[in-house]
Amino acid sequence: MTTQISLGLSPCPNDTFIFHALLHGLVPALAAPIVPHFADVEELNALARQQQLDITKISLGVVPHIMRGYVLLNAGAALGWSCGPLVVAREDLPQQAWRTARMATPGAFTTANLLLDMHGGFQGPRIHLLFNEIMPAVSRGDVDMGIIIHEGRFTYERMGLKNILDMGEWWEGTFRIPLPLGVIAARRDLPVAGDMQTAIAASLAHARAHPEDSRNFIRAHAQEMDEDVTRAHIATFVTDFSLDLGPQGRAAIATLAGRAAALHGLQLPAEGLFLS
Predict the structure, then answer these.
(1) Does 112 show up as a binding residue in the annotation?
(2) Is 255 exposed, middle or buried (0-12, 13-18, 19+ CB in 10 A)?
(3) Active centre residues (catalytic)
(4) Binding residues for substrate, per the UniProt record (predicted)?
């Protein structure tokens, strides 16, 4: 019998908005207590590779590496239109300079780094940093470019940086489907995975109906304290796909995960990606 459920999530506003009600007993939850583990998404990716968490937020870049042990839930994802990472620099750089530019990324297994690999136009050295260290590194000239995620999408201009390429626009123009950024994975041997999927959807429904309930919880964990940025962050990264992936969301994830697997010479599991 499961005595407790470990839950990995990032401290970013989209995750704290979605999971607040579940973690605070405002919606029906599991019989076993849920123990949250807040961490940067690349740390969560590493923990998933080690199968250290029962349920966790992960990047699409790590999906092919963990799917024998995990299954993806249909609730809690960050997926949508016009939400992709941005490649930024101190000044406009011609496209011929992209290939050899030193690039800061938020981690080797992040969706941002995967999109750079898929694009193919960025062949220079990659320096992996915490997401909140990337813009300062670009601003100082430690790197030529950086690919930014989370709140960086709304704050890079404050640091005098320029948007060189919107990777979401590139993805949407290439594949004509929404971009999956992060998904919720549960251990395949976890008997309460279906119950957790239902609980996450209920938690998000509560957050949408009572947005003020989660305000202090979100602020307590956020990197960026500007409330306009927080609202924009939630509006951008929490979508109807977060409530239920549906056929289009699952197809988008399968597309990106399949291409990630091909890049690394891996096979996705025959038993499928998603909890039925």
Answers:
(1) yes
(2) middle
(3) 150
(4) 57-59, 111-112
CATH superfamily of 5-80+178-263: Periplasmic binding protein-like II (3.40.190.10)
202 belongs to an annotated ligand binding site: no
pTM (2 decimals)?
0.95
Greatest pairwise CA separation for the chain in angstroms: 59
The model's pLDDT over 146-183, given as tens digits with 9 standing for 90+, comes to 999 988 999 999 999 999 999 999 999 999 999 999 99
Q: Is 58 annotated as a binding residue?
A: yes
Domain 86-175 has CATH 3.40.190.10: yes
pLDDT tens digits, 75-121: 999 999 999 999 999 999 999 999 999 999 999 999 999 999 999 99
Domain ranges in the chain with CATH number 3.40.190.10: 5-80+178-263, 86-175
Q: Which two tokens stand for residue 85?
A: 């990472």
Amino acid at 134: I
Q: What is the pLDDT of residues 9-50, one digit of tens each?
A: 999 999 999 999 999 999 988 889 999 999 999 999 999 999
